[in-house]
Amino acid sequence: MLDREGYRPNVGIVILNSHNEVFWGKRVGQHSWQFPQGGIQHGESPEQAMYRELHEEVGLLPEHVQIIGRTRDWLRYDVPEEFLRRQQTSKNHRASYRGQKQIWFLLRLVGSDSDIHLRASEHPEFDAWRWAPFWIQLDSVIDFKREVYQLALSELARYLSRGMRMQQLAWGSPLDLFQSLYGSEEDEPSETKPTDKP
């Protein structure tokens, strides 16, 4: 399912643990790491697609997570031609498909690490996983996705911090550095705390 510009609707998922570390999955048989993501099927809302992909790729159910927020609009990336040639067999399809447009969700894991199962589906996406700092360096992400990862993390950071201060940190700074500089979420006045809605 492509839009008129050749982008496939997709969801990206950032999962936080209690330390505000993010879930990273290593793609099966590759040395690249990424967040869970997947296409939105016909008739699905982005939230429905997110829950389906969350279970298929990570094994988590809705009761294992809490939605903290989502990006306001679609974030897009183009897939390079050499990848399209490898993945597509139809020349016409290859010519019309440009890449992905994504709604990104920020989730809090309210279950435990033991709830994560990478083989919940017959075709696993990941063969390993780990927790990493929110502002992790993105050099292990395939290069054509890095910009959209930066955009997604920067926008979703507003749910974790006061105002724009967190976005002013150098990329790769650990979240605890922000908290030591500016205080924790618990120190915020109640009227400035982020809500569950974007």
UniProtKB/TrEMBL annotation:
Motif annotated as Nudix box, chain positions: 38-59
Keyword Membrane (UniProt): no
Positions of the Nudix hydrolase domain: 6-154
Keywords annotated in UniProt: Hydrolase
Native source organism of the sequence: Polynucleobacter duraquae
Biological role: Accelerates the degradation of transcripts by removing pyrophosphate from the 5'-end of triphosphorylated RNA, leading to a more labile monophosphorylated state that can stimulate subsequent ribonuclease cleavage.
Name of the protein this chain belongs to: RNA pyrophosphohydrolase
Family of the protein in this entry: Belongs to the Nudix hydrolase family. RppH subfamily.
Upper taxonomic lineage: Bacteria, Pseudomonadati, Pseudomonadota, Betaproteobacteria, Burkholderiales
Superkingdom of the organism of origin: Bacteria
One annotated GO molecular function: pyrophosphatase activity
EC number(s) on file: 3.6.1.-
